[in-house]
Specification:
31% strand; mainly beta; 8% helix; UDP N-Acetylglucosamine Acyltransferase, domain 1; seven-stranded mixed β-sheet; six-stranded parallel β-sheet
């Protein structure tokens, strides 16, 4: 289900973006044209208002995962880090011409099942987040997160374990 402000940008093959059953998206899903990415979202995932998921390599989000409002997930740097290449990239954007994809760094992201990413957090390229992990609000994830671990801060660091399930 797409919310009223949701959008999906995919200028490539339709099969490169997959949303599982009962997934709710209220944010922006982008399969960037400067890569050959694959965006795979599991079942019963919630993507909150003002989220941005930007994929030029590969992003997988496991079932029953929650992305709070304003979460950003980028498997790419969006622009080249080299000053001259960045200037050419911006000029290409302004002209509407093809961007230099080889100059934009990227690496896959894997977010496990049953993960909760708190509002305003960022997940950067090359990250793996294990099943059941919790990312505290406003955290910036720059390193892999183990399963069933709570991380917080800038950069995000382990601070504990999720609360046990009822009846456990």
């Amino acid at each position: 289900m797409l919310g009223p402000a949701a959008c999906c940008v995919n200028k490539g093959p339709r099969d490169r973006v997959h949303l599982g059953a009962q997934t709710v998206c209220r944010g922006t899903l982008r399969r960037e044209h400067f890569g050959d990415g694959r965006l795979t979202i599991g079942e019963a995932v919630y993507i909150g208002d003002d989220c941005i998921v930007s994929c030029c390599d590969s992003i997988t989000i496991g079932s029953r995962t929650l992305l709070g409002h304003g979460v950003q997930v980028f498997d790419n740097d969006s622009h080249p880090t080299d000053r001259d290449l960045r200037a050419r990239d911006w000029a290409a954007i302004l002209e509407g011409s093809t961007r230099p994809s080889q100059a934009i760094h990227h690496a896959p992201i894997s977010i496990g099942e049953d993960v909760w990413i708190g509002f305003g957090s960022m997940v950067l390229k090359g990250i793996s987040i294990g099943r059941g992990a919790v990312i505290a609000a406003r955290s910036v994830v720059t390193e892999d997160v183990d399963p069933d671990t709570v991380v917080a801060g800038v950069p995000a660091r382990p601070v504990g374990r999720p609360s046990p399930r009822s009846g456990s």
